[in-house]
Known about the structure:
This protein has helices at 4-30, 47-60, 65-76, 87-110, 183-190, 208-213, 233-240, 244-254, 266-280, and strands spanning 117-126, 144-148, 151-163, 168-175, 195-198, 216-219. By secondary structure, the chain is α/β, with parallel strands linked by helices. The longest helix has 27 residues, at 4-30. This is IS982 family transposase.
Amino acid sequence: MLTEDKAFKLIEIFVTVDDFCQQFDQWLTLHPQPVYRNPRFEGIMSISEVLSIIVFYQYSGYKCFQYFFEDMVTNELHSYFPRQVGYRRFLQLITKALPHLYVFAKWTCLGSQATGTYFIDSKKLPVCHNRRIHNHQVFRDIAERGRTSTGWFYGLKLHLVVNNLGQAMNFTFTSGNVSDAKAEVLYELLHKLKGNCYGDKGYISGIFSELYQQGIKVVTKIRKNMKNKLMPINEKYALFKRGVIESVFDILMTVFDIEHTRHRSPQNALAHMLSAVAAYSFMEQKPAVLLPKLLG
């Protein structure tokens, strides 16, 4: 049911998405990309309408996109989107809108505040039960086996960086066997950040000095076979507050259902995960950490 709060959220999402699409299309006109083809929608539904429906689905409360589209979009949202297409045609439009959706999810991270205190972690995204790995076909050439503190899994990984206000600063998706401390992943996540970034022991990397020269200091706990070193009290305090990013992952799993094994194509899975990250930026109350003034 479309309540008044959800109606306001839908309008907020559409206005933001439409502003982004206009700016992005203008940029593409001035800077044409040879590897990027601007999707055409044959004048039926605009790309901003498609993206708005995908992102708003995360706030609808539905757990099945087909039921959401055929029940809410077709009936209750018909006045908001009068130029509707059928469900199967809309799935084709989602595939065409993936480049815009990816850039939009990255664009929402640009609006986050650079506080100088960041937290980094990864979240496993299994695509099937471990007993069905050999029979799984949808992510056959994409997913890989990985291991976390909770055991082995088969799927993908979400690497995320948030600030102490709970706002997403950057993200990336990799296969499940990619290490958290891999140089390419850290460079992509932290290349524009300045300040301190706190993570677990898995982020002890050999590129610490390179990142420090760029202005970002990665702070972690030490392993048992490492020599102990003194740590400033402000870094010690912030390291204990690293659980804020676990709260962000919990929201992505429970509210936006980013982790499930019902995808029937990699394109739909990527659209679902990107829309979950984008929808998180529209949350009014995010988990945050209040840091003392000495942290600066």
